[in-house]
Design brief:
Number of strands: 11
Low-confidence stretches: none
Number of helices: 15
Distance between the termini: 46 Å
Order of helices and strands: EEHHEEEHEEEHEHHHEHHHHHHHEH
Structural class: alpha+beta
Radius of gyration: 36 Å
Mean pLDDT: 92
Length: 456
């Protein structure tokens, strides 16, 4: 076997490897013997087909297979041992690759194009200064969240007098021109309305301070500005009929229902946080403040990762890449796309590639290791945030773990979680090395940072 490596330029190289008969012959014979054990041909007992016959019938196929296995093994072994930093995988050279005939040849030469990664230094130190934003948890934010929890834990109650946002239920009856109940007219028992959502203020005002058993007269068509959808739903008629319905209706109120937020008491604290976690409104608000601070800490790390990325991309600058080779790799990885797709997305892919190479150097420098347990914790964190969006603050750990494991069964999600875990660990380690320019901001100021264009 002979391997040679030739630098074409700073970013491209040729790797040539030649196998002689002595390199692959033992492997071919071993493969034929294994094939014999599994063979079953007419005229021979199972496993007793002569190797010479198998070689005659399948020798070329076995030879090609074994040479390709050896090729893959030796090429990547050479790249690993020589510590060649390549981009993508070796690609067959389209000009210098000799024609191969496994039926007649004994010596095989393979020529590969190698795309070399650019050389640069992405090591960080305390000489690197990067902004770090801490979000202030303001009293108004705690108040708002406490009210949101109270609202979420509230309940519907029957009341005697109507107020804005109450729901009313009763008997709707169509009236004639004289204001009497129309004979054969529309009547709807148990009709439900939310007067506050009426579009006409005059009609809406007719319900102000109304009481159970009161009879009101209003015009549904005016109230809903002729909306056929709302009229047909309320009056239980077809849309075509709703378009012509201009009558007044009487409405006898049978029920008034009001949604009342929960009181700030132990029942609320237990329902939101779990039984006995806090025992006073002061502790409840402190828990909210701490939870928000922890959530904002995650946001701060995400922002730091973005600022670290932008800072490093600027510091490293534009790198020399084997563009022709990378476009070829990109086209091979997107066989269902045309050349225009490659051209349109190529510059963006170089930015992502540069950040990927930077992260590799940072991972080595900072000793970042990704364990399965780390990825699981990231998945649980994502699950916890998703549950929190629906007000589920005290989801049991076993439920979180089950949800996270389901996420990891999806290959695409799993890859994303691995990448997220790596960036998170780099972020944490980098904060210990670089000089942080601490900036305390409001949530509004923090959100505006993401409206600014990246400095890539």
């Amino acid at each position: 076997m002979n391997i040679s490596f030739e630098n074409v330029d700073k970013t491209n190289a040729l790797l040539t490897i030649t196998f002689g008969k002595a390199d692959y012959e033992d492997n071919v014979n071993k493969a034929l013997k294994e094939m014999r054990k599994q063979s079953n041909m007419p005229g021979f007992r199972p496993g007793q087909v002569p190797v010479t016959l198998l070689k005659k019938r399948f020798g070329v196929e076995v030879l090609a297979d074994e040479v390709n296995k050896l090729l893959s093994k030796e090429v990547f072994k050479y790249i690993r041992e020589q510590k060649i930093n390549i981009l993508g995988e070796p690609m067959p050279n389209e000009d210098k690759q000799p024609k191969l005939d496994f039926a007649t040849m004994e010596e095989f030469t393979f020529v590969f194009d190698i795309a070399l990664a650019p050389e640069f230094d992405a090591k960080i130190s305390d000489k690197d200064t990067i902004d770090f934003y801490t979000i202030k948890v303001e009293d108004a934010m705690v108040d708002e969240q406490a009210k949101a929890y109270a609202q979420r834990a509230g309940e519907y109650k029957q009341v005697d007098e109507y107020q804005d946002n109450d729901m009313v239920k009763g008997l709707l009856a169509q009236l004639d021109a004289d204001g009497n109940t129309m004979e054969g007219g529309i009547q709807v028992e148990g009709a439900v309305m939310l007067p506050n959502y009426m579009k006409n203020d005059e009609e809406k005002a007719k319900f102000a301070n109304a009481k159970v058993n009161d009879v009101l007269v209003f015009n549904p068509s005016k109230a809903y500005e002729g909306s056929e959808v709302e009229l047909s739903s309320l009056l239980k008629i077809k849309k075509e009929e709703a378009a012509e319905m201009k009558s007044d209706f009487s409405f006898q109120i049978a029920e008034i229902t009001r949604y009342e937020a929960a009181q700030m008491n132990q029942d609320l604290y237990d329902k939101i946080l779990g039984e006995g976690v806090v025992n006073s409104e002061e502790e409840f608000r402190a828990n909210i403040r701490n939870t928000m601070a922890n959530q904002f800490a995650v946001d701060s790390d995400i922002r730091f990762t973005q600022d670290l990325r932008n800072y490093m991309l600027q510091r490293v600058g534009k790198l020399d890449y084997p563009e022709a080779a990378l476009k070829r790799i990109m086209q091979m990885n997107n066989k269902d796309k045309d050349a225009d797709y490659v051209e349109k997305n190529f510059e963006g892919s170089l930015v992502e590639l540069t950040w990927h190479l930077i992260k590799e150097q940072l991972s080595d420098q900072l000793g970042v290791k990704i364990e399965q347990a780390d990825v699981l914790e990231t998945a649980k964190s994502v699950a916890r945030a998703q549950f929190a969006q629906y007000g589920m603050m005290n989801v049991p750990e076993d439920a979180l773990a089950n949800y996270a494991n389901e996420m990891l069964k999806n290959q695409q999600q799993a890859e994303g979680l691995v990448a997220r875990t790596e960036e998170s660990k780099i972020c944490k380690k980098a904060q210990e090395v670089v000089t942080l320019s601490q900036k305390e901001v409001t949530l509004e100021e923090f959100n505006k940072l993401f409206e600014q264009p990246n400095a890539e």
